[in-house]
């Protein structure tokens, strides 16, 4: 594969060194508006351009790595998308949240692979921490706390730029480790950033950050304490400690943990035709948290962040206006009219389907069972005879009938009006 590296400044120079050290069969070309940066590259046989459009048209790369300054990200991303080229972009996605939303929307609509080069979660100890959580080492999560203290190394960093340049990494780790989204957020800042968050499933989280510390520095991923119902996990000074009633376990050697760099993950995702682990649509939620932190600072109060979860508009389907189809139901009498409003692919829970059914007089749903599923009938109109495990029961408007796993059931309309019902089925999960 061939990659076009756009940007050879501070970040780009580091990227160039890492890319050249990869063992993968990766060809490289590069572009930067500063022509002096290309002299050594050309001497090393790497094609160099001062115009990115020219570089794309001449080199025909398989993907673009965008490591330009933040305010240039949007323009380069759009240029790559004009040529339908996948993009691996340095964080943040764009110079502000609104532009980030726009560029992600375009990538989604045009189905162009777009991933953000988030690297903190690729640290081997953080991979191990995630593995322990997934293995239920501490049970259901209750709280996560992170502290990040370093000396300021970039004096040009503007006030609050810590959010997009530094803290966004920890937002990503918080979501990655917990597997949950942030619902509410309250931020204050004087000498340190202090952000308190409510996550899904009732999990609490807090984050404290300073880039002006004169004391002990944390590692770049920060120090973590994760509390669960069965124990706690800590990560500090490169060591993980698990404490449960059974005792204490420690890990300081992570050589057995498999780790991919962002570019390795991106190339693998392209090869396997799947989304990258830090796909831009997912990563947008991190930039959203930076945006909401600023909103909380401005408003001086807690803000609701749930609009950033990316679930889209409410999915509403009207059974009264739906076009019904007629068919025999489980070998019953006559033809039953029905419409499947939602199928298994529409749900994130064990729901299998939701149907609206109309049984004209004299028709029936044949006697049958559903193994380990539960099927629920909600009678809206009409009356009939429901047979459950060999016992007949009269049902009518307002009745909700639960047919449990392995039970057998059927419904006969022996009345003079149609039976109208909502029927849905739930898998054992």
Structural account:
With 429 residues, the protein is of the alpha+beta class. The chain folds into 3 domains: 2-116, NAD(P)-binding Rossmann-like Domain (Rossmann fold); 120-255 and 274-309, Dihydrodipicolinate Reductase, domain 2; 325-426, Jelly Rolls, CATH 2.60.120.10. The chain has helices spanning 10-21, 39-43, 52-59, 73-82, 97-109, 124-134, 162-178, 262-272, 280-299; strands spanning 2-6, 27-31, 48-49, 63-66, 87-89, 114-116, 141-149, 182-189, 193-199, 204-210, 223-228, 232-236, 239-244, 247-251, 303-304, 325-327, 336-343, 351-359, 364-369, 374-381, 384-388, 391-395, 400-403, 408-412, 419-426. Helix 5 runs antiparallel to helix 9, helix 6 packs parallel to helix 7 (162-178) and helix 7 (162-178) crosses helix 9. The radius of gyration is 28 Å and the shape is globular. The relative contact order is 0.10. The model has no long low-confidence stretch (mean pLDDT 92). Residues 2-112 form the Gfo/Idh/MocA-like oxidoreductase N-terminal domain. Pfam families: Cupin_2, GFO_IDH_MocA, GFO_IDH_MocA_C3. This is Cupin domain-containing protein.
Proper CATH architecture of the largest domain: 2-Layer Sandwich
Write down the Rg. 28 Å
Q: What does the average pLDDT come to?
A: 92
Largest sheet data: 9 strands, mixed
Report the strand count. 25
What fold name stands as the CATH topology of the largest domain? Dihydrodipicolinate Reductase, domain 2
Quickly give the structural class.
alpha+beta
Count of discrete structural domains: 3
Strand portion:
25-35%
Secondary structure tally, helices: 9
Domain Cupin type-2: 358-423
Pfam family, one: GFO_IDH_MocA
GO molecular function, one term: nucleotide binding
Domain Gfo/Idh/MocA-like oxidoreductase N-terminal: 2-112
């Amino acid at each position: 594969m061939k990659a076009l590296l756009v940007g050879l400044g501070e970040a780009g120079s580091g990227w160039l060194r890492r890319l050249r050290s990869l063992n993968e069969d990766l060809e490289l070309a590069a572009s930067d508006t500063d022509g002096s940066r290309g002299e050594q590259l050309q001497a090393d046989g790497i094609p160099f351009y001062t115009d990115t459009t020219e570089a794309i048209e001449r080199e025909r790369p398989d993907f673009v790595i965008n490591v330009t300054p933040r305010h240039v990200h949007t323009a380069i991303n759009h240029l790559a998308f004009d040529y339908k080229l996948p993009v691996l972009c340095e964080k943040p996605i764009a110079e502000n949240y609104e532009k980030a939303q726009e560029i992600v929307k375009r990538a989604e609509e045009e189905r162009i692979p777009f991933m953000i080069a988030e690297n903190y979660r690729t640290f081997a100890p953080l991979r191990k921490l995630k593995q322990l959580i997934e293995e239920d080492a501490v049970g259901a999560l209750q709280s996560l706390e992170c502290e990040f203290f370093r000396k300021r190394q970039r004096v040009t960093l503007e006030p609050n730029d810590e959010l997009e340049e530094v803290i966004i990494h920890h937002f990503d780790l918080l979501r990655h480790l917990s597997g949950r989204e942030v619902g509410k957020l309250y931020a204050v800042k004087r000498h340190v950033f202090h952000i308190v968050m409510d996550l899904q499933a009732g999990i609490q989280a807090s984050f404290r950050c300073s880039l002006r510390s004169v004391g002990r520095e944390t590692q770049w991923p920060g120090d973590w304490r994760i509390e669960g119902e069965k124990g706690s996990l800590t990560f500090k000074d490169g060591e993980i400690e698990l404490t449960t009633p059974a005792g204490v376990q420690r890990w300081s050697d992570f050589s057995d943990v498999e780790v991919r760099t962002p570019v390795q993950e991106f190339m693998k995702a392209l090869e396997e035709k799947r989304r990258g682990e830090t796909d831009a649509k997912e990563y947008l939620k991190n930039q959203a948290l930076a945006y909401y932190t600023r909103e909380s600072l401005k408003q001086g109060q807690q803000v609701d962040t749930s609009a950033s979860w990316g679930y889209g508009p409410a999915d509403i389907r009207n059974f009264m206006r739906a076009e019904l189809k007629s068919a025999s139901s489980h070998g019953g009498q006559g033809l039953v009219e029905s419409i499947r409003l939602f199928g298994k692919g529409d749900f994130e829970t064990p729901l299998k389907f939701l149907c609206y059914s109309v049984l004209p007089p004299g028709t029936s749903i044949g006697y049958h069972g559903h193994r380990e599923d539960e099927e629920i009938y909600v009678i809206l109109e009409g009356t009939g005879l429901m047979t459950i495990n060999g016992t007949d029961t009269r049902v009518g408007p307002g009745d909700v009938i639960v047919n449990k796993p392995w039970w057998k059931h059927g419904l006969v309309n022996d009345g003079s009006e149609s039976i109208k019902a909502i029927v849905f089925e739930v898998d054992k999960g």
